[in-house]
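Below is a filled-in request sheet from our internal design queue. Each sheet records the structural input a requester submitted and the sequence that came back. We keep these sheets so that new team members can see what a complete request looks like end to end.

REQUESTER: design group, bay 2
PRIORITY: normal
MODE: inverse folding
CHAIN LENGTH: 526
BACKBONE (tokenized):
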């Protein structure tokens, strides 16, 4: 460490010259202490000590006279001195190197040969350190950044740089540092004279980091809420600004997480950008892919063929036909030949945008709530409604069935997925064979078809759902023991409706007609 500039004590003595009147010519010692370096704005006090060795400057004959003055040389580094007082006081106003001169004058009219001038000078420094940047915002991705002191800085011992927390340090009129190697956050940086006094100046350096840890995410358009978050070490002293191309995801605030509503966005790719409001070029971006599966019911025509629908052969073989919609009584179930009353359907999902990556998987799910009833004539005077069977009450059952009947992989040509369902009724099963001619069976099935999806083997979640209601009504017409001969196919419909799978008097009347009273058993809808 360097020290302040000091100069030796001056001894200035007026010598006795021939022809002078001894005793009248003064000999004076002037002692001015060294002036220590100080900081701008401080008051400097200089107090010379005078000792008259010979003569008396105050009592010369006729007109004794003694006066002094002060002169400061040094590029206006002090305020103008007020008067010539002892001690002298002056205030430093700017940094630099200066010199102060004290001049003492003795005059005598009676003894002109005794006139004497005494002069002593001292050098001193006014230390001034000022950082040019009051504050500095740098991006954590930057390789280099710089701080420097102002041109009017005067640090005779050199400038030293330090910071809290540690990370920015050096010597000289400027300091360079690497934001990419610093922990994001606020740093208080100090520049000071590397000696006494230090006269420091400080500034704030903010190392900003904006980091979205994922490069792309996928969300379902049916989701009510989704979010994007920055990494935990992201930092911006103000706020973050979020935007997207195309528009749709935006926000601003100090939180490191933004939420958005996928159901408000058209399906497709969104390039989302987050930037620091304090430093616009410090940013990061990622892709948000909004996936949508639009479901439709196909209950007429034929099964969508291969290769568009990879499960075509399994689907058509299960029913013994590729026809959709109500089939003739006794047809439609290869596992129950001659026994079923069915109406095969397909549920088709159109996936957008097309060509989703292989990391996105889909699967089909089907849930059911079902009740079935007997409607029998009770002695020919009353229609009695009793429960035949039920399932998925009150909580719907998973009735998805075998995966071989479903094609959950979006097709190349149309980006569609397919589910086949051949739901029906076995009218003669159970108590059906004991019904009398003229009795009815009614069944209502409330289906909920769902497409679930996941990314990279993660957790499955629903992306799209559709409610389909199936109503089956058949009437016993004969007792031959052949289903196709004994039962009339009155209704077997599938529509995109939500059924409650309960029976009402009005529904019974629409089936049986006439005016006979209708009695619905108390347990019919339990």
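RETURNED SEQUENCE:
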């Amino acid at each position: 460490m360097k020290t302040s500039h000091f100069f030796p004590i001056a001894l200035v003595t007026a010598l006795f010259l021939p022809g002078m009147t001894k005793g009248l010519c003064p000999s004076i010692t002037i002692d001015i202490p060294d002036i220590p370096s100080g900081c701008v704005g401080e008051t400097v006090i200089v107090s010379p000590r005078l000792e008259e060795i010979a003569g008396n400057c105050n009592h010369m004959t006729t007109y004794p006279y003694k006066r002094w003055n002060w002169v400061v040389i040094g590029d206006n580094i002090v305020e103008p001195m007020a008067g010539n007082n002892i001690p002298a006081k002056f205030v430093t106003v700017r940094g630099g190197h200066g010199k102060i001169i004290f001049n003492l004058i003795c005059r005598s009219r009676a003894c002109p040969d005794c006139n004497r001038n005494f002069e002593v000078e001292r050098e001193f420094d006014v230390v001034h350190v000022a950082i040019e940047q009051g504050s500095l915002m740098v991006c954590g991705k930057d390789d280099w950044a710089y701080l420097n002191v102002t041109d009017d800085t005067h640090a005779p011992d050199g400038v030293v740089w330090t910071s809290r927390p540690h990370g920015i340090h050096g010597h000289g009129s400027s300091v360079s540092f690497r934001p990419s190697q610093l922990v994001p956050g606020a740093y208080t940086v100090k520049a000071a004279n590397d000696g006494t006094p230090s006269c420091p100046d400080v500034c704030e350096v903010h190392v900003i980091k904006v980091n979205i840890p994922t490069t792309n995410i996928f969300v379902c358009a049916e989701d009510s809420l989704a979010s994007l978050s920055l990494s935990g070490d992201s930092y911006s002293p103000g706020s973050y600004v979020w935007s997207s191309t195309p528009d749709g995801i935006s926000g601003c605030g100090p939180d490191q997480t933004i939420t958005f509503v996928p159901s408000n966005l058209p399906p497709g790719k969104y390039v989302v950008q987050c930037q620091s409001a304090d430093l616009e070029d410090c940013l990061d971006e990622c892709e948000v892919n909004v996936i949508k599966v639009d479901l439709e019911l196909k209950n007429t025509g034929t099964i969508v063929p291969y290769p568009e629908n990879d499960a075509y052969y399994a689907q058509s073989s299960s029913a013994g036909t590729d026809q959709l919609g109500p089939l003739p009584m006794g047809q439609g179930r290869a596992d129950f030949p001659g026994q079923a009353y069915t109406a095969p359907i397909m549920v088709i999902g159109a996936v957008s945008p097309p060509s989703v990556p292989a990391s996105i998987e889909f699967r089909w799910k089907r849930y059911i709530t079902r009740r079935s009833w007997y409607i029998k004539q009770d002695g020919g005077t009353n229609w009695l409604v009793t429960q035949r069977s039920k399932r998925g009450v009150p909580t719907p059952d998973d009735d998805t069935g075998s995966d071989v009947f479903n094609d959950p992989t979006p097709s190349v040509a149309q980006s569609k997925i397919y589910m086949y369902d051949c739901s029906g009724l076995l009218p003669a099963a159970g108590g059906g064979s004991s019904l009398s001619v003229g009795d009815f069976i009614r069944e209502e099935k409330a289906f909920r078809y769902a497409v679930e999806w996941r990314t990279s083997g993660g957790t499955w979640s629903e992306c799209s759902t559709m409610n389909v209601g199936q109503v089956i009504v058949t009437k016993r017409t004969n007792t031959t023991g052949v289903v196709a001969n004994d039962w009339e196919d009155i209704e077997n419909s599938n529509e995109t409706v939500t059924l409650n799978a309960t029976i009402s008097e009005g529904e019974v009347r629409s089936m049986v007609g006439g005016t006979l009273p209708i009695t619905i058993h108390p347990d019919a809808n339990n």
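SHEET NOTES:
- The longest strand covers residues 360-377.
- The radius of gyration is 50 Å.
FILED BY: M.R.
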